Amino acid sequence: AAGLQTSPGPFGTTERPTPREDITHYNNFYEFGLDKSDPARLSGSFHARPWTLRIDGAVAKPITIDVDQQITAHKIENRIYRMRCVEAWSMVIPWDGIPLAEILRKAEPLGSAKFVAFRSVMRPDEMPGQKDSFGNIAWPYVEGLRLDEAMNPLTLLAAGLYGEILPNQNGAPLRLVVPWKYGFKGIKSLTTISLLETMPPTSWNRLAPDEYGFYANVNPDVDHPRWSQASERVIGSGGFFGEKRQPTRMFNGYGEQVAGLYAGMDLRKYY
Amino acid sequence: MVISVWWTRRSFLNLLLYTSGFVPACWSFWLGVHDKLGPDPVRSFEHILGLWAFRFLLASLAITPLRIVSGVNLTGYRRAVGLLAFAYVVMHVAAYIALDLRFDFVTLYRDITRRPFLIFGMAAFLCLVPLAVTSNRLSIRKLGRNWRYLHRLVYVALIAASIHFLMAFKTWHVNAIFYVLFGIGLLSVRGINFLWGKRVHRRIYAE
Fold first, then answer.
1. Which value does ipTM take for this structure?
2. Where in the cell is it found (chain B) (predicted)?
């Protein structure tokens, strides 16, 4: 993969990044299959380039951005974030990208905009998992954030990994990274961002509303119905007997930056 | 003379069954120790053990339907297959407690008392314990008819294990559905045979 020009960004962590091999071969990307090894195996014929991102809805200036010309060609930030999956495992990932707020401001959101809806790509010919959707997600994958969550400085649009352009299995060419929320909020292969006045539907919430909420903030005190969220397995921590299990932190350890967004909210109800 | 040769062949095949039955567990354990089970080796090991437990459970339950449908009698190998299923269940649970939870008994207690996914799994395990314990000639002799009643618990174990298996995935998983349908098929053969047998029975009495 091509190298990217990056500079160190804020919010770094001292934890050791997960090996690249693990980050690129342990993926939940159901568009390519249900098993975690499927995306690396089956995403070879996916065309991530050329690619444009559309921003529309409640904005003064709807725009269409060419990913290579307007994002990856420029200097982008390197941000090492913790990633916590709803399945109770975690990684530490060195992303390369730009703050989502920076892109959203270009489209000039209107005062009426309260939510941001994200839509992924629909290409059954290139994504085998989209052909057979029995009991599965209704494609394309959609996600959403409140506008203030989207504008938070932590929220990132990632275009790279370990200083190189994003591999297909990690959501090329552009994916969302919201490090204080469970990984499924990080929609991959992003095509459209729409600013809205009302809360948009989200894929996992539509499939199993009692298991996956709109907010999906990492929260060790609110368990998933099928497993505890109190602790997490650290992926790539060294084989069979070296495997590490560590306590999960509120907001995945980003409380200082984001706890204020949820002041006064019952996080048991708004999970 | 003929009988003793046949007996020898059967015990030899049983021995072969026991030893080859442990190959998947030993092989994946070796892979795990050498960090060749992918990025999440403990989870992969748990899944491999669980899958083989389910396969052996289905195999042990296939022996009677096979005899009903084709007349092939493998009853002499059922104990070995059933005990292999139990051994894999024990290893599956042990991997979960030792390698995954790292003996965190507080989490274990919370999980198996609250989460249906694990409650069904544990229920299947507990159902199989008395079956494994009584899988010997002495118990068969001592329990008499009750032994057969007791061993009907295997149906409860299969149902609980099936639910556990289906719940292990966030969406409907084709492989899991396939295995569960196979189990339903096996139970149906027995069910149909049972009802059919009763009808024949009644007809004989009516005449």
1. 0.80
2. Cell membrane; Membrane
